[in-house]
Amino acid sequence: CVPCEAGAPPLKKDRIEQLLATIKGWELIEDNKIKKTFKFKDFIEAKYFVDIVSIVAEEQGHHPNITIIYNKVTITFTTHAIGGLSDNDFIMARIIESVVI
User: Model pTM?
Assistant: First the structure.
């Protein structure tokens, strides 16, 4: 991810739709967030996935909202500094897709 300056404009709807088409299963929420729910065999696998996502997020300096309900993990991205979506949200989504068990 690249640093995002506060006050930078969020991505426009056409760019969001273009980027969203490159990441399978992610959906646009409220025009300013992307989200996906991942399903695992059990809680242990789900927790392991969350552990990996948290390490990657910390390394990249771009942190998602994470919800875990037994064997389901929902990841939601938005760039708070700009009040909408940035390229970083989509970069992180692609990185997470590459680590799915």
Answer: 0.89
Helices (H), the chain: 13-20, 43-60, 87-99
For 7, 20, 58, 82, 91, the CA distances from 25, given in Å and listed in that order, are 30, 9, 23, 24, 15
Residue 8 in this model has a pLDDT that exceeds 90: no
- Best CA proximity match to 29, nearest among 40, 20, 38: 20
Q: How many CB atoms lie within 10 A of CB 69?
A: 10
Q: How far is CA 55 from the centre of its chain?
A: 13
Q: What is the pLDDT of residues 12-23, one digit of tens each?
A: 999 999 999 999
With b meaning 16 or more CB within 10 Å and e meaning fewer, what string describes 12-37? eeeebeebbeebeebeeeeebbbbbe
